[in-house]
UniProtKB/TrEMBL annotation:
Domain Transposase IS116/IS110/IS902 C-terminal span(s) in chain numbering: 279-362
Name recorded for this polypeptide: Transposase
Record field: transmembrane: none
Region annotation (Disordered) ranges: 415-468
Keyword terms, alphabetized: Coiled coil
Keyword Transmembrane included in the entry's annotation: no
C-alpha cells in the first residue's frame, strides 16, 4: 500500500505533516516537527510502514527548507514529490473556500495524489544543495553588483572629465582599478610623476600599460584641474571625490577577484557534471553559459517532456484559448530567470554560427518581428536541441539548412553570405516597436483641467446626473 505524507514546510516555525492512505482517508493529521534528526526519526516512527508499504512525501519548495527534509526521506527509501506553489494554491482555493492554515495545507498535500495524480513526479535532485546550481547563481549576483559599481564609477569620473575615460577605458581592468583606488585625486597623480606612474602601471597591468598610458593619465589630471580650477574653494574638493572613488574601486576589485574564483569553481563543477562537454558543444554556449544551463536545469530527465523544459525557461508565450480562438501574448517568464538570461545571450551568439538558426532568425525578422522577440524564439529552439543532445548523450552537430554537416567556420561564412538580415529590415522592425511603445505611453493627451482646450475632445466619465 502507498502512504502519502503531506508536509507543509516553514522556514523558522514548526512544520506540519498529515498522513493519508491512497484512497484519501487520513491516518493522522497535523503532526508538528522541526528539521532535526530526532524529530524526523519520531515522524518516521509515526508513519509506521509495514512490509511492502511505500511512502511518498509531498512538499512545496519553500525557500531552501525543503532540501534537507527531502534528502533525509530519500535516504530512508521514500519517494519525494515537489509540488509547484501555484498548483497547490489553486487546489487550496477550491478545497478550503478561501481559508488558509498550516493544518489544512498538510492535509491538502497528503491528498494531492488523489486530487491531481498527473501533477506528481518523483524529485531526485537536491536543488539548492547542488554546488553548481548555487555557484552560478552567486556568480550572477556578483556580476550584477560589479556592474552597479562600474556605473557609479562612470558617474564619478564624469566629474573629473572625459579624458579619464580615454586613459582608463570602459571595462575597468585591474590596472584601472588600482589607479582609481590610489590616485583618483589629480593633485596626487601629478605629484607622482610620469616615471613612478609608469612603473606603477607596469606592475599592476603585467606590462600591458606603459609610458603612453601614463602620459594619458597625467593629461587627464591636468585637464581636471583646468576644468575645476586649482583653488579648492572655487571648485570641487578632489580629495573627497578621490576617497569616494577609492571605495567603489576597492569594491570592484574584490568583486572581480571573487568572480574569477567562482569561474574556476564552476569550470571544475561543470566538468564533473558534463565530462564529455555535451552542453558546451552547442553553438553560442561558452564556459559560463554551459555551467549555468547544467546548474539550473539539473537532471534533464526530471522533466516529462521537452515542452516542460521549454516552459521551465519561461521563454514560451502565454496562451489564452476560448472555443476556436487562441491568443498568444508576452512570455510567461516562469521558471528560472538566470537560465533565461543565459539562453537569450547564447541564442544571440548561436544565430551567427548555426545556419538553421540564422535562417529562422532572418525569417522572423522579415515578418517585422522585433529583435528580442526573434531571439526568444531562437532560444527555445536552441534549448530544445541542447536538451535532446543532453538526454541522448550526443554532441551538438552543426548542419546547413540542407542537413549537410559543417564546421563552425563554414557556418559563420554561410550565415554571413546567405542569412544576414538587411539593415533596413532591422531598422523598420525597431521603429515599429518604438512606435508601439510611444503610442502606449501617449495614448491619451494629458489634461489636468477637463475644461481646458485640447487638440482632441476630452474624455470624461459621465456623472450621476448625466446618466440619469
Amino acid at each position: 500500500m502507498e502512504l502519502i505524507l503531506g508536509i507543509d514546510l516553514a522556514c523558522r516555525a514548526a512544520h506540519q505533516a498529515s498522513l493519508a492512505r491512497s484512497d484519501g482517508t487520513f491516518v493522522w493529521t497535523g503532526r508538528k516537527f522541526f528539521t532535526r534528526p530526532a524529530d524526523l526519526e519520531a515522524l518516521w516512527a509515526a508513519v509506521g510502514l509495514a512490509e511492502g508499504d511505500v511512502l511518498r512525501v509531498v512538499m512545496e519548495p519553500t525557500r531552501n527548507a525543503w532540501a534537507p527534509v527531502a534528502s533525509w526521506f530519500r535516504r530512508r527509501g521514500a519517494k519525494v514529490s515537489m509540488v509547484p506553489t501555484t498548483q497547490s494554491a489553486d487546489l487550496r482555493a477550491y478545497y478550503s473556500k478561501h481559508t488558509k492554515n498550516d493544518h489544512l495545507d498538510s492535509k491538502l498535500l497528503a491528498r494531492l495524489p488523489l486530487l491531481h495524480p498527473e501533477g506528481l513526479r518523483e524529485h531526485t535532485g537536491d536543488g539548492p544543495a547542488e554546488p553548481l546550481r548555487r555557484a552560478v547563481k552567486i556568480r550572477s549576483s556578483l556580476v550584477k553588483r560589479r556592474t552597479a559599481v562600474f556605473q557609479r564609477l562612470d558617474a564619478q569620473l564624469e566629474l573629473l572629465g572625459p579624458a579619464w575615460y580615454d586613459a582608463l577605458g570602459s571595462n575597468y581592468g585591474k590596472a584601472a582599478l588600482a589607479v582609481l583606488a590610489r590616485y583618483a585625486d589629480p593633485h596626487s597623480l601629478i605629484r607622482l610623476g610620469q616615471a613612478r606612474l609608469t612603473r606603477f602601471l607596469i606592475r599592476h597591468s603585467r606590462g600591458a600599460w606603459r609610458d603612453d598610458h601614463a602620459r594619458a593619465l597625467l593629461t587627464a589630471a591636468k585637464q581636471s584641474l583646468e576644468l575645476w580650477g586649482t583653488d579648492a574653494e572655487a571648485g570641487i574638493d578632489f580629495a573627497e571625490l578621490a576617497a569616494d572613488i577609492a571605495v567603489e574601486a576597492e569594491q570592484a576589485r574584490v568583486l572581480t577577484e571573487q568572480i574569477e574564483d567562482l569561474d574556476e569553481r564552476t569550470a571544475n563543477l561543470y566538468a564533473e557534471a558534463d565530462p564529455t562537454g555535451i552542453v558546451a558543444s552547442a553553438p553560442g554556449v561558452g564556459p559560463v553559459a554551459s555551467a549555468i544551463i547544467v546548474g539550473r536545469i539539473g537532471d534533464p530527465h526530471r522533466f516529462h517532456s521537452l515542452a516542460a523544459i521549454r516552459a521551465y525557461s519561461g521563454l514560451v508565450p502565454k496562451v489564452a484559448q476560448s472555443g476556436q480562438s487562441a491568443h498568444q501574448h508576452g512570455l510567461t517568464k516562469a521558471g528560472d530567470p538566470l537560465l533565461r538570461e543565459a539562453l537569450f545571450a547564447a541564442a544571440d551568439a548561436a544565430r551567427r554560427t548555426d545556419p538553421q538558426l540564422a535562417a529562422k532568425y532572418k525569417r522572423l525578422m522579415e515578418t517585422e518581428r522585433h529583435h528580442d522577440s526573434a531571439i526568444c524564439h531562437i532560444a527555445t529552439t536552441l534549448l530544445t536541441r541542447i536538451a535532446t543532445c543532453w538526454r541522448t548523450r550526443q554532441h551538438y552537430v552543426l548542419r546547413d539548412t540542407d542537413g549537410r554537416i559543417i564546421t563552425p567556420d563554414e557556418g559563420r561564412r554561410i550565415v554571413r553570405d546567405r542569412h544576414s538580415v538587411d539593415p533596413k529590415t532591422r531598422d523598420k522592425a525597431a521603429h515599429a516597436r518604438m512606435s508601439q511603445r510611444r503610442k502606449a505611453r501617449t495614448g491619451r493627451e494629458s489634461q489636468k483641467s477637463q475644461s481646458a482646450p485640447t487638440s482632441r475632445p476630452a474624455k470624461t466619465n459621465p456623472t450621476t446626473h448625466q446618466v440619469a
